[in-house]
Design brief:
The chain contains ten helices and no strands.
Length: about 210
């Protein structure tokens, strides 16, 4: 009597998406082929298209999920801390840890995911630039509010400071991809804080 064939293993969409995320994160959008994706996700091309759509649609889902999970630390730090200086310091220190986490590719997916895209994929690069600009707008908004409530001096150049913080974050991501350690990036974060105006609390009296 022939052996009974087992039921096919259920498709794990979450695991497949995680595998795609690691590939896009490490290699970028353009350098990640459909063949590499299907191999890493352990599915055939028709299954990939059925579950996720085309490559660009898959990448958009990867980016959306990343921003909601691993990439959410920046805006969460600004939202949760009671004052803007503390929020910025936490954001930069957490970036040093997140961008060098050995369990995932280095750096930030949104910063490096569409580097060196050809004109054929200019829309992908534009989409990530749009997301980075959205973060920059949040930085400006938070800094502007800090000036309005007296957390930062009235003469603070909000636009320039927001751009500076965005540049620091992007630089930390690239340094991580170049092999910088958590300790190195933490030192960079502490140095960057010197450019953020505001009162430095005096040590408590004995």
């Amino acid at each position: 009597m022939a052996a009974t064939r087992g039921r096919p293993r259920a498709f794990d969409r979450e695991a497949a998406l995680a595998a795609a995320t690691r590939l896009f994160w490490r290699h970028g959008y353009e350098a990640t082929s459909i063949g590499a994706l299907t191999e890493a996700m352990n599915i055939r091309p028709p299954s990939l298209y059925a579950a996720f759509g085309d490559k660009k649609t898959l990448f958009e889902e990867v980016v959306t999920t990343y921003r909601r999970t691993r990439g959410a630390f920046m805006l969460r730090a600004l939202d949760e801390e009671p004052d803007v200086r503390t929020g910025i310091a936490r954001m930069l220190r957490e970036a040093a840890v997140e961008y060098t986490d050995p369990t995932v590719p280095p750096g930030c997916l949104v910063i490096s995911g569409a580097a060196n895209c050809s004109p054929a994929n200019a829309d992908v690069a534009a989409r990530l630039r749009e997301l980075r600009d959205a973060n920059l707008a949040v930085f400006e908004q938070r800094l502007g509010h800090a000036v309005a409530v007296g957390e930062l001096p009235d003469d603070t150049d909000v636009s320039t400071l927001a751009s500076y913080l965005a540049a620091v974050i992007q630089g930390m991501s690239q340094r991580a991809r170049d092999g910088a350690t958590t300790r190195e990036l933490t030192a960079l974060a502490e140095t960057a804080m010197l450019a953020v105006p505001g009162r430095v609390d005096e040590p408590a009296d004995d």
